[in-house]
Amino acid sequence: MRTPKKKLYIRTYGCQMNVADSEQLALVLDSDYELTDRPEEADLYLINTCAIRRKSVEKVLSLLGRLKALKRRRPEMLLGVGGCVAQQEGQQLLRQAPHLDLVFGTHGIYRLPDLLAKQRQTGRRLVDTAFAAEMPYLCGPRPAGAVQKLVTIMQGCDNYCTYCVVPYVRGPERSRPAADIIAEVAAFVSQGGQEVTLLGQNVNSYGRGLPEAVSFPELLRRLAAFGGLARLRFTTSHPRDLSEDLMNCFAELPPLCEHIHLPVQAGSDGVLARMRRGYTQKDYLTKVERLRQVCPDIAISTDLIVGFPGESEADFQETLTLMRAAAFDSAFYFKYSPRPQTEAATYAEQVPEAVKTERLARLKEVQEQLSLASNQRLVGGVREVLVEGFSKQHNGQLTGRLRSNHVVNFDGPAELIGRLVQVHVTTAHRHSLGALLCGGQFGDQFLAASRQDHRRIPC
Ligand code: 5AD
Ligand code: SF4
Question: How far apart are CA 351 and CA 354, in angstroms?
């Protein structure tokens, strides 16, 4: 008789890349462990961490503190920390948290079964933060009901923006062979998957160093050629490397959703140069204009940092000017946070915390107006939604995303979760839209039509 599998609980912090890594962790350990969503019954408790800002690290340390009590109650439970904080802190984490058993870095995922075996044999607390030349990727079966999938197409980053810890904690850029990506997406689509998001720190440089030279636009064309894939997305794209060829894909490839996340970070040319971003405000706005010419429906989101070392009030005003000129549909914005090993952490003229706080509030105000305007432009139209589940904020309503990535909430039955439906957009808020389901009982008459034309179907 087979011994029953042990229980694995994974707590994931950070970006979509970390979510995808946690899926890999579960697959790597699948022969011995099954996932649980109840931490108190875990035999192995893993924390997959993010180090992008100091706050992200503090969250991990605070969770580790809270887990002392659980470990005291269940000393047989193994506790491990993986990902970017683990990579950065290594041995230091074992010193900080005496109840921690394992530390494994961003490249340690695939060696975790060996690390666990060694831990079992020796009973010692272990650290593995070595980088690997090759990273295998595992493809598992589609989890029941999942219609969206994150697919990692590359790891690491060679850009060394002066504020960013990623190249240090994730290592150099490596692309995954196109054939493997295509096989993973094909399997997902054949099992009923609807939406794939391709992940990489800078997808525009996908393909460098691969034996078969495949550019990112070429990869998109190959994936878009599958029948049956309704939605294709990607993140993140570096503005410097956004090519005309890639922009044209938005006009040419029906499954490619009309949304691009294009982190600008700042508006002042001086700050952009000191961030080592490789473009000016004008270069960026020219690309935004071109994207909107090629694909008038495209939604553009961005990331912004306030209070980068040396940022003056005039520099900050340039950021607000750029935001208005680009008319971003949505944005994530952060106070600059000095990170270990990065160049900007050593710069003189660090901006006081109070100034960062005040600038962040002003920036938020501007973006909230832009986001509201973006949402208002959609009111009265009919759009396709991929229904993701029930909304936490909007009691009992279904929630999903338009192809443009706008969030929409509407009344409807649970049977629609995981399906593409058409809605009539009725109301605009700052962070979401309200809508009514189109057509008959479930708007079903629109489903077939929406597969042929993903853009717009009259109600
Ligand atoms: N401080 C603040 N924000 C940062 N980001 C990256 N590094 C830092 C930092 N040191 C932001 C950037 C990036 C996003 C993922 O996080 O805006 O695009
Ligand atoms: Fe960080 Fe710059 Fe690489 Fe993005 S491109 S991960 S901001 S170093």
Answer: 8
